[in-house]
Every structure is written in structure tokens, then in C-alpha cells.
Amino acid sequence: MAASLATCIFCKIVKGEIPCLKLMETESVLAFVDIGPIAKGHSLVIPKHHAATLSDLPESEMADILPALKKIAIASGAQNYNILQNNGRAAHQVVDHVHFHMIPKPAEAGDKEGLVIGWPVQKDLSKDEIKTIYEDIKSRL
User: What are the pLDDT digits (tens) for 25-41?
Assistant: First the structure.
């Protein structure tokens, strides 16, 4: 169930009710160091506007997100990093407020630090099935 504005931890951080280790702030975003990092320098960029998922976030609130992520990635000194954004419980979203992770991935750390992912290719989809999916998505754009 989506958190209300009154109970959303990220909304409380935006309002200053909960402290954070603020890295940067614009009119529309707040960026801070993750307090449960999976790598040194793991940071979050959140829109100030409360929206549970990316598809709920108005486009007018998105302009500063990627520039903030880029600045933080550069400032972290990470040569390798992941930008991660989850939507919904099945996709591992824990806080019901859109947020983006910048997660450094030190090459020498292997799978001991940073994001550990696999990429299971859906090999049982035929080219016709892929084309049907493409046509469906394209028709909705």
C-alpha cells in the first residue's frame, strides 16, 4: 500500500522533519547519501513531489533528476556505477516515493560491493512475439 504524504519517510526528509546527509538540492529534487548503503558513495536522488512510482510522477518534476545523478556520479569519483530505479514491490521498491540510486561499483570489489545483478534473457520469446510486444507498446505511445 502506498504511503501517504504524512507518513512517507522521503517526504519527511524533504520537509526537514528527518535529517539527511544532503549532497545537493534544487527546486524539484533532493539528493543525499543512503544510510543503508550497499557501496561506498551509494546515494539517492528523490523528487520533492510525492509520487509512488515513476509513471505517477509528472514530467514537469523530472528535469533535475538525471543532471543530479550525473553530478553525484562524477563527484563520487566512481568509474563504474549503476543508476537504479524500482517501481512496485515485485520490482524491489521498498519506499513508496520515486527515488533513484547512484551505486558505485568498484571493479576490484567483484560481487562483494555494489549492486549484484543478473540479466536473465527471455530466450523463449520468438521474434514474432517480440514484434507483437513492440507493436503493442508503440501503439500506446
Answer: 999 999 999 999 989 99
